[in-house]
Write the structure tokens for this entry.
Amino acid sequence: MTTGTTPKFTRRRTTTIAATAALAVAVPFAAGTPAFAGPNFPSTEGKTNISSIVDFDGLVAELDRIERTSRFDVEVQTLAEVGTAVSMSEQGRDLYVATVGDGPEAVWLQGRIHGNEPYGTESLLSVLKELGTNGSPEWKLLRETYTFHVIPMYNPDGSELNIRHTILQDGSAQRIDLNRDWGVGKFAAAESEAFYEYWTMVDPAFAIDIHHQGLKREYGTGDDVTFSLGISLAPGGPTLPGIEGGAYDVLTRQMQVHVFDELSKYGYVNIDRYQVGGSLEIDIKGGVVSAMMLGLDHDGLNPEGHSNPAIFFETSGNTSDGSLGQKARGKSIKQNVLALQELLVGMATGEVQAEDASRWDEIPHAPVTGYQTDNGVIPIGY
Ligand SMILES: [Zn+2]
């Protein structure tokens, strides 16, 4: 099932992660300008220039470069090379996964399942590069504790089209939200079949999924939110407390408390809890990370009922509504890289598992009025 990571050592970290993360961002801010004026990005004035976003060819080139130049072994494979029964996107693009690390537990890191949510790709490429090159004790600990399965671009077709969905090539031209397609009677799209089978091969201990949201203000203060923390089956909700004796209900909240605390040190990041429609907790079963937590057995590929906890990140700003804010690119990516590093190191050291899950209530959020499920809203106190 889960995360039986034995804490190898515990200590408080200070500047190491900040320093390495600054190096991980490809485009630093110009010297002389106030780099981080406050959590006020992106903005409607920040013009979205999608030509600077990593496209599919750019992804393939960067993965190749990382594989060739890494100090530690990074293996880049297509799912065709892995040998899944379905291995290409709907439009026939290769689906890529990069692995790094020698640890006994697998970790699944996925980005850009929604094609118009770009920085999951760039954030994961940054982290992959660090995992492949950084010799510091923390990155060494990560490589020794885990084997990482990094999927920087889950939805290459949607990425090329700058749309959320993939488009079925069966003549229907139906648009499929890949993050609602892992479910009983679902799996309409090739990408879902391919990555699901790969998930059953990997049996990860936990997963992290990177998204974008629109511009958002913090409930109560009105401050710009730069980053929201999500769990696609709501803690304390209709579903999650019943899985694995409530273990994921606790651990997913501990993960978020840890990220919230660690990133609060950075003045340009402002975090809240992901909610739908202002005051609803998300509780959908067809999301990829939901199906992972539910231990979905599709096509008899998961007969042992493997499941794993998972959380997702939402960076504010989206290419589709023009709110991405090109000037915020560096900060938008860096907050994901920092959140990934802090969460992964915290899991490896056991700091996450020692967090007080009840402090999840302290992460800013609107008063919860209900749960947004696949079949409508369930009011609180159902
Ligand atoms: Zn998304």
Notes: Residues 114, 117, 211 surround zinc ion (CB under 6 Å). Residues 1-37 have pLDDT under 50 and may be disordered.
